[in-house]
Amino acid sequence: MSNQALFHLRTLWLFTKSDFKTVIFPQTVFGIVVALSGPLLTSNPAPKTCEVLRNLPKTILWLWLNLLNEVVSNQRLPGSIVEDSVNKPWRPLPTQRMTSNTARKLLLCAIPTIYIASLLLGGTEASMKLMVFSHMYNELDGANENWLIRNVLNACGLSCFSVGAAVTATGFGDYTLQREVYVWISLLAVVIATTVQIQDLPDIEGDRRRNRKTMPLVYGHVATRWSVSITIMFWSIFCCTYWDLDSVCYLPCMLIGISIAVRTLVMQTQDADEGTWKLWCLWMMILYSLPLMRTTPRHL
């Protein structure tokens, strides 16, 4: 492979690098869990692990392509370049690996490519909705002017990723998703909307430079930390109860939830906040796994 090809591949990697923990890994887990849950969440009466693993590359490809569109749309904006020069100076535009105009041209190619891919892989509706939410988040400045709109758009975007992951992992064209999946995704969207402000704690300085109205900058970091700690503990209990889990199955979710709550209140450096944000991503992966911990189907 030529040096130029490697350069461009690395550029694409740098665009999406920081969102693997937020999108690719958790949503891949969600897709696998839904597919393996069988009649609880899908029309597949007896899912086989080998079949789900065979669909795994399709799921990851769908997630990565749609993620690429979202992050390029975001990172090419002037305000994002200013923010990333502080918070993530290794990204392609702050390091001048790519210009904003070149990123725009990349999007012109990426959007039809993603549409065609979604027709083949599944999740077309989720992909199109994700583009709408991305446009509202980035071009319409929804991420910057109001912290609540920002949180809701984050929740809507991640929910679209969840639907796409579930459709592709279950087997597009072979099986369908049950109503229960969409109810569960809707609940998870509320969870995300009420806790995702945790991601803004390590990025306060960069957000201040671009005059972004995040919760820590509007209400202060202390109020934000308490809001995260309280809601994390509430949802840790609620989601486990929602699936009627045995007491022992509460432990993973509760332990990570307690760790996040304590770290958020006690460890308040930028590095500590970055670590707590990563724990939140792990906590979401555990929430995504809860349906597999059930032993009997539940009718919603």
Automatic annotation (TrEMBL):
It is found in: Membrane. One of its GO terms (molecular function) is transferase activity, transferring alkyl or aryl (other than methyl) groups. The chain crosses the membrane at residues 106-128, 148-169, 181-198, 218-240, 247-265, 277-293. One of its GO terms (cellular component) is membrane. Signal peptide: none annotated. It is a multi-pass membrane protein. Pfam families: UbiA (PF01040). Its main location: membrane. Keywords: Membrane, Transmembrane, Transmembrane helix. PANTHER family: CHLOROPHYLL SYNTHASE, CHLOROPHYLL SYNTHASE, CHLOROPLASTIC. This is UbiA prenyltransferase. It comes from Periconia digitata. The lineage of its organism: Eukaryota, Fungi, Dikarya, Ascomycota, Pezizomycotina.
